[in-house]
Amino acid sequence: MVMSIRTFKRFIQFPLRALGHIMETTTVKNYNIFILGFAFMLVFTGFNTMSGIQAMIFKSATTPGSGGYVEGFKGDGFISSAVIYAVFSIASWLAPSVVAWKGPRVAMILAGVLYAQYIAQLLYPNTYLLYISAAVIGLGAPVIWTAQGNFLSLNSDDDTISRNSGIVWAMLQSSIFIGNMFAYFMFTGEEFISSSVRTTVGVVLLSITVAGVLFMFLLRATPWASNTAASNESPTSALRSSGKLFLTKDMLMLSVTFLYTGLQLSIWSGVYPTCVGFTNSFGENRKALATVCMIFIAAGEVLGGAIFGFFGHLTTKRGRDPIVILGFITSMTSYFLIFLNIPFEAPLGETKPTDAAYITSNIYLAVFTAFILGFSDSCFNTQITSILGGAFKEQSSSAFAIFKFMQSMSAAVAFFYSPWLKL
What's the pLDDT at 234? Predict the structure, then answer.
């Protein structure tokens, strides 16, 4: 009789315990998504801001009499970015092994430290250290992105992957807004970037990046995923599975889009804001205008991430094709407006008053172009993240590594030719 009563109690309590476990798991997942987005927002406040302004800063550092001149320094912001993405593309094949070895949380923390050392190059530019640190961050970049994609996948399911991808993307891209708001106030009235301004910007961006790395320590474990094949994968098998996945029909078709996002990455993160900052017809505040354009790029990125995040359930029902097509149309529109509004010589350095675009360069058009450029980029990246985290959930580390390999290889080529080719 006593045994039957105990059995009955356990039978009644089992659904309640199961429900409590589910609710706890859901809470941890939502917590992890928020901390992941917030940590990446801080880390990339430093990196994304530096990517947009480094070409202008280093140009001042190589120009005698600019107030920011550093004797013996010959570094170039575009070449530095090219080195980052060239190493990034090669190291992407090793990233799944690192994530399988250390786990996504530890991998993100270690890679975040490598991001911080690159930001420190703003404090006192040195040509050799700049390119060495660019190669070092190139080793860390695929690890942090592969680990992020894996961790995002582990904390999502088929119903929440679109929403979570949009939320993390919006929080990440708001880093551009935060960093460039600060840079705008620092660059206002500066035709060239002085040493004191460069140092102040470097210290602030480095501090924010370090804070982001510290926030990664708050990420909680994902015990519900401990028994999956992906979590038990060895570094060697992770490398082999990446190679096999890359040769599948679906991944080869997606790789075309991956390559395109790399070209777009080079434009919005470096080439376009630099061209604006070098366009003489925009006046003495053109460096500050470049940061305003980065702010509006961020606004477009965040708006896209928020829309596609909040309405992710509609994406699941109706497909992602309309969003990708919208991204292609808006990106082509932004490129055409850049072609009309920016002098062809702008990527090469400071333009002359005689260097003119097809139309009279217009500040408001430059800012509007920045906004739709950012929005178009969010169309592609939110959908790619959602596809990889959902359709390739069991191989998420390998899938995100392949994405970053193709994207960074394309971006590296674009950054290498950017200092030499006109628009």
Answer: 59
Tokens of 92: 């992407």
Angle ∠(158,161,163) on CA atoms, nearest 5: 125
CA-atom Rg of the chain in angstroms: 23
What angle separates helix 77-91 from helix 2-61, to the nearest 10 degrees? Answer: 150
- For 213-247, the DSSP string reads HHHGGGPPP-GGGTTSTTTT--HHHHHHHHHHHHT
Using alpha carbons, select from 156, 139, 171 the residue that is nearest to residue 396: 156
- What residues contact residue 301 under an 8 Å CB cut-off, 6+ apart? 169, 170, 173, 176, 374, 375, 377, 378
| Confidence (pLDDT) at 21 | 45
User: How far apart are alpha carbons 94 and 231 in whole angstroms?
Assistant: 16
Six token digits for residue 283: 């006046």
Q: pLDDT of 183-195, one tens digit each? A: 888 888 777 888 8
CB atoms within 10 A of CB 239: 18
Alpha-carbon span 365 to 370, nearest angstrom: 9
How confident is residue 157, by pLDDT bands cut at 50, 70 and 90? Answer: confident
Q: What is the pTM of this model?
A: 0.78
Contact status, residue 280 vs residue 355, Cβ threshold 8 Å: yes
Quick one: how far is CA 23 from the chain centroid? 31
- Euclidean distance between CA atoms 333 and 384, whole angstroms: 21
N-terminal to C-terminal alpha carbon distance within the chain: 86
Residue whose entry in the numeric block shows the structure tokens 């992770």: 238
The predicted pLDDT at position 225 comes to: 66
Give me the residue label for tokens 């939320």: 167
